[in-house]
Design brief:
The protein is mainly beta. Helix content is 0%, strand content 43%. The protein has strands at 19-24, 30-38, 41-48, 54-56, 63-69, 75-81, 88-94, 101-107, 109-113, 119-124, 131-136, 143-144, 156-157, 163-168, 175-180, 187-188, 197-201, 207-212, 224-229, 236-237. Strands 1-2-3-4 form a four-stranded antiparallel β-sheet, with no helix packed on it. Strands 5-6-7-8 form a four-stranded antiparallel β-sheet, with no helix packed on it. The relative contact order is 0.11.
Length: 252
């Protein structure tokens, strides 16, 4: 849909297959997503928005999800979990899925790129409680940046490189938090009481899109997409459907 919530349209068509974790390319011409392939098996796909053609990018038994294009559009990252090992690995691959390899010595999920493409921000329980970490794509310069309770994972890095946004809190009591890219100056972004989650920065770094239940609290199907300025003002609702709208990712 457009950034103001208009021109809402459906891209995937298989009614009985779950499609989730969408992420637009830097040009806005294609979208990455994860979809059901077989029992305990989700693969990463790329859909061309103009003609609707779909290409399967992964073929590795297990769960591949949370794919995202690098800022230059030449590389992708995603999480891979093999049922045999039950280890969450951060994978980096060519745009077409080739040359896939994991970040050495790194375990985690929900990866997202730094705006210069040098680092990946991800969630991990490597130190116990789930927190956000950054690392280079070769696994070096691993650094923990958060100390928040009950982080789930989905986060984003602003395109100007200044901020990181994530969500934290127990079920039905989650809020968005924004901080400097090094994890300092953490503050709650969203008004309390909306069970807010799954944030994504706008390309100009001035807004955050996210899922929340401000108007349908405690209704499992009541989540809608909202946007808010990074100073916590001007909360706006974009969607109004009788099903759950979630995991927004902002594109150009």
């Amino acid at each position: 849909m457009d950034a103001d919530g208009s021109n809402f349209r459906r891209l995937t068509t298989e009614n009985n297959i779950r499609h989730f974790y969408p992420s637009l390319s830097p040009t806005g011409q294609s979208v990455l997503y994860s979809a059901f392939f077989a029992a305990n098996n989700y693969e990463v796909y790329q859909l061309d928005i103009d003609d609707g053609s779909i290409a399967q990018l992964t073929n590795s038994y297990g769960v591949d999800n949370a794919p995202e294009f690098s800022p230059d559009g030449q590389t992708i990252t995603y999480m891979h979990n093999s049922p045999a090992k039950n280890i969450n690995q951060i994978i980096v691959a060519d745009r077409d899925g080739g040359n896939a390899g994991n970040l050495p010595q790194i375990t985690g999920w929900d990866p997202t790129w730094s705006p210069d493409g040098e680092f990946i921000l991800f969630a991990s329980d490597r130190d116990g409680a789930v927190q956000l970490f950054t690392a280079r794509t070769d696994g070096t310069k691993l650094h923990r940046i958060t100390s928040l309770p009950a982080i789930r994972g989905r986060s984003d890095w602003s395109s100007d490189g200044q901020y990181v946004v994530t969500y934290s809190g127990e079920a039905w009591h989650r809020e968005l938090y924004i901080m400097n890219a090094d994890g300092s100056n953490v503050r709650q972004l969203t008004p309390s009481g909306g069970n807010s989650q799954g944030p994504s920065f706008s390309p100009d770094s001035k807004w955050v899109a996210f899922t929340a239940y401000f108007d349908n609290y405690s209704d499992d199907n009541g989540c809608e997409i909202y946007i808010i300025r990074i100073d916590g003002t001007d909360l706006r609702r974009l969607t109004n459907n009788d099903y759950c709208d979630y995991q927004p990712r902002w594109g150009q």
